[in-house]
Write a structure and sequence with these properties.
The chain is of the alpha/beta class. Helices cover 43% and strands 17% of the residues. β10 and β11 form a beta hairpin. α6 runs antiparallel to α7. It starts with a helix and ends with a strand.
Length: 264
């Protein structure tokens, strides 16, 4: 679908530049296909993971800890914090945006007031603060990034997930309330992270048997850690089934005849 949309937008032109806000698989999992289609494309990534991509370190890139897939791709250039770039005949400034991923970046076009925020800010929230799952610091970094977004005073935000939005102040208020809740109640964040990891993988499969999905989950380092934090008093399988039940209640999946079905 990504390639189809690119061809449709480009018409007969070629894609010259591919820029990543961060390197979680849902944001760069299509890089390899794009590079195969547009062989001369220049690919830019945040500097913190540039060498990890060149050496394809699945641990540092988080594909192994999250149990996610990402076809290997190549990188040509490192982005730099506070540097200006010209993309699509428009000037953009790259800003470090730690929190969700402490190597993430976002891009602001001052001329049009447009911010490409990645997973630092959505209309309703932001991405999992993954450094906190590694016993690293991420909450304060996320707060600092929200402050930077407010200072930029964007008129329009293009988020990593969800629709474009213009009421940036409301989004910031919601994000700060959510961040404060996560800081005050770390288990709330851990449960959110567990559901995100499970839901994202189910989106990849579409439909999968309960047994096969449990087998996948039991080999995911982040889920093993989260089980120890949230449900160590019960077997992993029971804890995992509870997660699935909560996802069913929220309407994003169904269970029919021991088959898990992604629904939204």
């Amino acid at each position: 679908m990504t390639l189809h949309l690119l061809r449709q937008a480009l018409q007969e032109r070629s894609l010259t530049t591919l820029v990543n806000t961060h390197l979680h698989s849902d944001h760069c999992g299509g890089n390899a296909s794009i590079q195969a289609e547009f062989t001369s494309v220049n690919t830019l990534t945040p500097p913190g993971h540039f060498d990890a991509v060149k050496n394809w370190d699945a641990e540092l890139l988080t594909y192994a800890p999250t149990g996610q897939n990402c076809p290997r791709f190549v990188v040509n250039q490192q982005l730099q914090d506070r540097c200006e770039y010209e993309w699509g005949r428009t000037r953009w400034t790259a800003y470090a945006a730690p929190g969700h991923d402490n190597h993430a970046m976002m891009f602001f076009c001052a001329q049009h007031g447009i911010l490409i925020s990645g997973d630092a800010l959505w209309e309703k929230g932001f991405g999992v603060i993954f450094p906190e799952l590694d016993a690293d610091s991420g909450y304060q970094q996320a707060a600092n990034t929200l402050n930077l977004i407010e200072d930029l005073d964007a008129a329009l935000v293009i988020p990593g997930h969800g629709s474009l939005f213009t009421d940036v102040q409301s989004a910031l208020r919601y994000a700060r309330q959510r961040l404060e809740a996560f800081q005050s109640f770390p288990d709330k964040h851990a449960r959110y992270a567990s559901k995100v990891l499970v839901k994202f993988k189910l989106q990849e499969y579409g439909t999968i048997s309960m047994q096969a999905f449990l087998q996948w989950a039991q080999n995911v380092p982040y889920l093993i850690t989260l089980h120890r934090q949230l449900g160590a008093q019960q077997p992993f399988s029971h804890w995992f089934e509870q997660l699935l039940a909560e996802l069913c209640q929220s309407g994003v999946m169904e269970i029919r005849d021991q088959q898990l079905i992604n629904t939204a």
